[in-house]
UniProtKB/TrEMBL annotation:
It comes from Microvirga mediterraneensis. This is Methyltransferase. InterPro entries: SAM-dependent_MTases_sf.
Length: 193
C-alpha cells in the first residue's frame, strides 16, 4: 500500500490474470510495427477481442483463442496456449497481451511456433538477474516503450475506483528477420488514435 492505494493485486485476486488491452496500445502497435507485422497472426489470449478486432479491422487475418471464453467474436475457447495441441496453419506471427504471471512461458512457446512475436508487457519485464541469460538466448528485435502511461488496465470484474496507470508498459517484439542489438523506441499512444 502506498498512501492508501493498493499498487498490485495478489495472485489469488488476479485469478487467471485477465486485464483487457487498451485500444490505444493496439492502435499504436499497428502504426509503429506496420512494416513488420505479418499478414496472418494468432492472438492466443484473445479475451474480449481487444487486440483481435482492431487487427481484423486493419485487414489482418487473425486466429483467436483463449483459455476462457470472454466474448471475442470468431474465437476458440478452452485452449491453453502453454499446453500441446494442434496449431493453426500458415501463421506468420503471434501478438498478445499475455497473463503476466506466464509472460516468459508465453514468449518461449510463441517463439517455438512463429518467427514474429509481439507482446504487451510491463517495462519491468526487462529487469532481473535470472532473466538476463534468457534475454541473451532469446534476443529482442525491438522494444516500443509507451512514453505516456497507457490508460489503466483493470482486471476483469473490477468494480473499484477507476485509476490512472502507475505502471509503465511496452510492446516487446521478437523478429527472426532482425539483426544486431535490440532497438529501443518510444511511442505516445495519443499520436496513434
Amino acid at each position: 500500500m502506498t498512501g492508501g492505494v493498493k499498487i498490485r493485486h495478489a495472485l489469488a485476486e488476479r485469478g487467471d490474470d485477465f486485464y483487457p488491452t487498451p485500444l490505444e496500445a493496439v492502435r499504436s502497435l499497428l502504426d509503429v510495427e506496420r512494416v513488420y507485422l505479418p499478414e496472418r497472426i494468432w492472438e492466443p489470449a484473445c479475451g474480449d477481442g481487444a487486440i483481435v478486432l482492431p487487427f481484423r479491422e486493419a485487414g489482418y487475418q487473425v486466429h483467436a483463442s483463449d483459455l476462457v471464453g470472454r466474448g471475442c467474436p470468431d474465437s476458440e475457447a478452452g485452449l491453453d496456449f502453454l499446453k500441446p495441441f494442434a496449431m493453426p496453419r500458415g501463421l506468420g506471427g503471434i501478438v498478445t497481451n499475455p497473463p503476466y504471471k506466464h509472460a516468459q512461458a508465453f514468449v518461449d512457446r510463441a517463439l517455438d511456433i512463429v518467427p514474429y512475436v509481439a507482446m504487451l508487457l510491463r517495462l519491468s519485464f526487462l529487469e532481473g538477474q535470472a532473466r538476463r541469460p534468457w534475454f541473451e538466448k532469446t534476443p529482442l528485435a525491438r522494444v516500443w516503450v509507451s512514453s505516456a502511461r497507457l490508460p489503466m488496465m483493470h482486471r476483469d470484474g473490477w468494480d473499484g475506483p477507476v485509476a490512472t496507470s502507475t505502471t509503465a508498459f511496452a510492446w516487446f517484439v521478437w523478429d527472426a528477420r532482425h539483426e544486431g542489438s535490440p532497438r529501443i523506441r518510444w511511442f505516445d499512444w495519443r499520436q496513434h488514435q
